[in-house]
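Lecture notes, part 5. Sequence design as translation. It can be helpful to think of inverse folding as translation between two languages: the language of shapes and the language of residues. The source text, in C-alpha cells, appears below.
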C-alpha cells in the first residue's frame, strides 16, 4: 500500500472515530470525552492536509521548483502541530467552566464502549502507518501516525478518569482530565512544529546514514584520491550529499568522470534514495568557503 493510500485510510478512520467520540460525549455529557472528540477533529484535518502535501511532494521538478517539491511534507507536520494548539485551547475553554458548575455524567457504559472502539481503530492504523513511514521516510505519514498514537493514549486516560468519577464521587476529575489531555497534546504539537522547522532548515542526514557514506568513500580514498567538504541534507523522503573529490591534476577528464560515476553509484547503492553531487578538483587545489555570516 502506498503512502497516499495510508493517508486516505487515515481520513476515513478519522471520520469514523469523530462520529463515535461525539456520540460518546452526547451520551455521557463528559467534557473529558469531548476533549477526546476535539482531538479527533484535528486528526481528520491533519490527515487531509497530509494527503495533499504528499501529493505535492511527489510532483516532478518544474521550472519554478528545479529541485523538486520534497519539502512539502514538512508543512504537513507543522500544520498539524498548529491545529493541535487550537484544539488544546478549545478543550481548556470547555473544561474550565465545569470546575465551577460540575455536570452529572450519564450512560457511561455505552459511551465509554464507543470511545474504546474508536481507540482500537486508531491504534491499529497508527501502528501500520508508523511502519510504512519509517520504510518510506515520509515525514507527513510519520507525523500523522504519531498524532494517532497520542490520540490513543489520550483516549485511554480519558476512559480511566471518567470511570473514576462515579467511583470516587469527585466530579472535578472530568474537567481535570480534559485539561490534562490538552496539555499532553500541546507537547506533541510542539514536537511536530519543531520537527517541521528542522526539516525546512536543511537538517543533516542521520548519523548512521553519514557513517554509511563515510565507509563507502573510504573504499575509494588512497594516495591519489581524497574526499572533503562532505555536506548532507534531508528534504522530505529524499536525501542529498555534496562533496569534493580530489585527484591527480594530470588525469584526463574522461578518467576523472568515470571514477566519479563509480563513486556516485556506490553511494546510491549504500544509501537507497540518496542523490550524490561530486565536484572534481585537482589534488593540489583547495576550495575555500566564506565563513563570514551574511549581514542581517
Amino acid at each position: 500500500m502506498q503512502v497516499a493510500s495510508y493517508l486516505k485510510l487515515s481520513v476515513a478512520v478519522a471520520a469514523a472515530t469523530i462520529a463515535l467520540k461525539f456520540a460518546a460525549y452526547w451520551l455521557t455529557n463528559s467534557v473529558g470525552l469531548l476533549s477526546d472528540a476535539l482531538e479527533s477533529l484535528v486528526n481528520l484535518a491533519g490527515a487531509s492536509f497530509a494527503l495533499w502535501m504528499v501529493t505535492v511532494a511527489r510532483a516532478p521538478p518544474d521550472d519554478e521548483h528545479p529541485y523538486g517539491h520534497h519539502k512539502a511534507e514538512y508543512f504537513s507536520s507543522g500544520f498539524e502541530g498548529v491545529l493541535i494548539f487550537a484544539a488544546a485551547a478549545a478543550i481548556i475553554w470547555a473544561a474550565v467552566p465545569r470546575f465551577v458548575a460540575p455536570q452529572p455524567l450519564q450512560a457511561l457504559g455505552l459511551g465509554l464502549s464507543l470511545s474504546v472502539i474508536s481507540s482500537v481503530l486508531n491504534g491499529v492504523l497508527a501502528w501500520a502507518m508508523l511502519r510504512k513511514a519509517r520504510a518510506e521516510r515520509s515525514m507527513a505519514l510519520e507525523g500523522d501516525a504519531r498524532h494517532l498514537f497520542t490520540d490513543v493514549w489520550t483516549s485511554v486516560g480519558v476512559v480511566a478518569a471518567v470511570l473514576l468519577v462515579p467511583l470516587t464521587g469527585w466530579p472535578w476529575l472530568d474537567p481535570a482530565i480534559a485539561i490534562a489531555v490538552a496539555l499532553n497534546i500541546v507537547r506533541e504539537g510542539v514536537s511536530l512544529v519543531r520537527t517541521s522547522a528542522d526539516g525546512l532548515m536543511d537538517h543533516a542526514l542521520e548519523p548512521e546514514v553519514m557513517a554509511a557514506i563515510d565507509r563507502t568513500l573510504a573504499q575509494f580514498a588512497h594516495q591519489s584520491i581524497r574526499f572533503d567538504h562532505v555536506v548532507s541534507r534531508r528534504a522530505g523522503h529524499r536525501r542529498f550529499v555534496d562533496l569534493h573529490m580530489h585527484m591527480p591534476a594530470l588525469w584526463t577528464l574522461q578518467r576523472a568522470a568515470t571514477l566519479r560515476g563509480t563513486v556516485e553509484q556506490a553511494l546510491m547503492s549504500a544509501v537507497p534514495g540518496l542523490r550524490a553531487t561530486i565536484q572534481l578538483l585537482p589534488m593540489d587545489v583547495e576550495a575555500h568557503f566564506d565563513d563570514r555570516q551574511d549581514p542581517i
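The translated text above is only one of many valid answers, since several sequences can fold into similar shapes. The longest helix spans residues 139-168.
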